[in-house]
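Good morning,

Attaching, inline, the backbone tokens for the sequence recovery test we're adding to the shared suite. The designed sequence is right after.
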């Protein structure tokens, strides 16, 4: 789900630019291609979310800088091949900030942190030197030619 709306995009980048960017194949268009704009906003939000692997999504806490980040990623995507330097630079600045979230150098509010989930498929098998000891019965008898 996007962190910014279509109306917020138009407010940030004005109607004329929004119409032009959402209708690159038709320079005579006079209306916003809402499908293309919505796709850019959704793709931008997905790009943001891809950096938030340590958090429970959707976030329970609104992050104030996600809206301008979503807007700048969306406009970057709409420009496609001829991205102006200022648009590219804003995009790259947001990516750096999102990478800081990924590496833990920048933390989101504690209320947004995901609780660790139990993974029942790993960590249950025990092996000792000598006799094989398994706590996961699905692995009993499996040696694959390896002697422990």
């Amino acid at each position: 789900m996007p962190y910014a709306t279509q109306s917020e995009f138009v407010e940030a980048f004005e109607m004329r630019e929004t119409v032009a960017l959402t209708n690159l194949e038709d320079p005579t268009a006079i209306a916003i291609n809402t499908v293309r704009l919505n796709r850019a906003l959704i793709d931008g939000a997905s790009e943001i979310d891809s950096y938030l692997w340590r958090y429970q999504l959707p976030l329970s806490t609104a992050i104030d800088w996600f809206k301008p980040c979503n807007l700048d990623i969306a406009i970057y995507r709409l420009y496609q091949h001829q991205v102006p330097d200022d648009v590219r630079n804003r995009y790259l600045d947001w990516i750096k900030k999102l990478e800081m979230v990924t590496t833990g150098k920048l933390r989101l509010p504690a209320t947004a942190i995901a609780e660790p989930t139990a993974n029942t498929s790993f960590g249950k098998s025990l092996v000792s030197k000598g006799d094989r000891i398994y706590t996961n019965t699905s692995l009993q008898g499996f040696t694959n030619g390896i002697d422990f």
